[in-house]
From TrEMBL:
<dbReference type="Pfam" id="PF00625">
    <property type="entry name" value="Guanylate_kin"/>
</dbReference>
<keyword id="KW-0808">Transferase</keyword>
<dbReference type="InterPro" id="IPR017665">
    <property type="entry name" value="Guanylate_kinase"/>
</dbReference>
<dbReference type="InterPro" id="IPR027417">
    <property type="entry name" value="P-loop_NTPase"/>
</dbReference>
<comment type="similarity">
    <text>Belongs to the guanylate kinase family.</text>
</comment>
<dbReference type="InterPro" id="IPR008145">
    <property type="entry name" value="GK/Ca_channel_bsu"/>
</dbReference>
<keyword id="KW-0067">ATP-binding</keyword>
<keyword id="KW-0418">Kinase</keyword>
<dbReference type="GO" id="GO:0005524">
    <property type="term" value="F:ATP binding"/>
</dbReference>
<feature type="domain" description="Guanylate kinase-like">
    <location>
        <begin position="46"/>
        <end position="227"/>
    </location>
</feature>
<dbReference type="InterPro" id="IPR020590">
    <property type="entry name" value="Guanylate_kinase_CS"/>
</dbReference>
<dbReference type="GO" id="GO:0004385">
    <property type="term" value="F:GMP kinase activity"/>
</dbReference>
<dbReference type="InterPro" id="IPR008144">
    <property type="entry name" value="Guanylate_kin-like_dom"/>
</dbReference>
<dbReference type="GO" id="GO:0005829">
    <property type="term" value="C:cytosol"/>
</dbReference>
<protein>
    <recommendedName>
        <fullName>guanylate kinase</fullName>
        <ecNumber>2.7.4.8</ecNumber>
    </recommendedName>
</protein>
<keyword id="KW-0547">Nucleotide-binding</keyword>
């Protein structure tokens, strides 16, 4: 510092010879300004994390575990016009609405993204995202590959896009068979589209390999991605 601008102060005692507060105050006096206790960087922005990947890769399993280990994470519940299946809970699995209600949500621009899938509407309510982002929560959206492409067009780089893959096609197909939830027709269709879906990998920011029996490692990588995004100098800023 320019000597002429420095306020006249006594010598700064060495930390060996004086208490911490005394040295602190002497340093402030020597600089002619006080040290602020305000955070040096503001809190990171709430993040929108879009998780996608082929059917059966483990999106639900990874997200479920991630929600258990990470606080302040809101998983957005999709609205759908399809009838509720046995065991499904309204507001937890989906928000079940009538077709007319869904069409009204489209009209009122209340959906971030929607699609007609096999005759039923599915869409992401904006209000839920706004509400939880305002509380400082990070948002997780689970969408199929088409949904991810639509969200990329809407959100561009304001959200982080994660593609989940299995370690091999073989592992993916075996996992899907093991889940025992699909009819043979659905199984064939899902396996066939998985091959094509892998071509969309390059449209994502991160890829996480969800290896057989290593769900915990995949969740750790997801956490690392979130941590790295929080530490970015140029933060993503999603406005919904
Ligand atoms: N790392 C893993 N190792 C072994 N099994 C796994 C792993 N990850 C997920 N699974 C299992 O694989 C099956 C498919 O996972 P999950 O239902 O989460 O996939 P998904 O991507 O959400 O599928 P979909 O898009 O069809 O809903 C489930 O039975 C799940 O428990």
């Amino acid at each position: 510092m320019d000597e002429s601008r420095r306020s006249p102060v006594g010598p700064i005692p060495h930390p060996n010879d004086a208490g911490r507060n005394e040295v602190f105050r002497a340093l402030e006096a020597s600089l002619g300004s006080t040290f602020s206790s305000e955070p040096i960087v503001p809190n990171p922005n709430p993040l929108i994390i879009v998780v996608s990947g082929p059917s059966g890769v483990g999106k639900d399993a990874v997200i479920k575990r991630l929600r258990e280990v990470r606080e302040d994470l809101h998983f957005v519940v999709t609205a759908t016009s399809r009838p509720k299946r046995e065991g499904e809970i309204d507001g937890k699995d989906y928000f079940f609405v009538s077709k007319d209600e869904f069409l009204s949500m489209i009209d009122k621009n209340e959906l971030l993204e929607y699609a007609l899938v096999y005759g039923d509407y599915k869409g992401i309510p904006k209000q839920q995202i706004r509400e939880y982002m305002a509380k400082g929560c990070d948002i997780v959206l689970r969408v199929d590959i088409q949904g991810a492409a639509t969200l990329r067009r809407i959100l561009r780089n304001s959200a982080v896009f994660v593609f989940l893959v299995a370690e091999s096609e073989e592992a993916l197909v075996k996992r899907l068979i093991g889940r025992k939830t699909e009819s043979i027709e659905a199984l064939v269709m899902r396996v066939a589209s998985a091959k094509e879906e892998l071509r969309h990998l390059k449209e994502f920011d991160y890829v996480v390999v969800n290896k057989e029996g290593e769900l915990e490692s995949s969740v750790k990588v997801m956490e690392s991605i979130i941590d790295a995004e929080k530490a970015k100098v140029q933060q993503r800023r999603a406005v919904i």
